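A.,

Following up on our hallway conversation. Structure tokens first:
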């Protein structure tokens, strides 16, 4: 699965809207939409923050197929 789909799935499992997740990550909703649509990938520090938030590894979210 792609990282965009992974983020979407994990966010929805937590029953969060894009806006709610954006607040948790301290970014704008449009940034979350770009990640989920794979128009822009998060930078490495943000990848770590996202992985920590979902209690997963960066590898599992962003690099596993």
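Then the amino acids I'd put at each of the 65 positions:
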């Amino acid at each position: 699965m792609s990282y965009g789909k992974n983020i979407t799935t994990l966010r929805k499992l937590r029953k969060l809207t894009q806006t709610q997740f954006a607040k948790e990550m301290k970014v704008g909703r449009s940034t979350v939409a770009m990640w989920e649509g794979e128009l822009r990938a998060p930078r490495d520090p943000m990848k770590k923050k996202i992985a920590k938030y979902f209690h997963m590894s960066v590898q599992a979210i962003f690099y596993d197929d």
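The two ends are 5 Å apart (CA to CA). Curious whether your intuition agrees with the design.

B.
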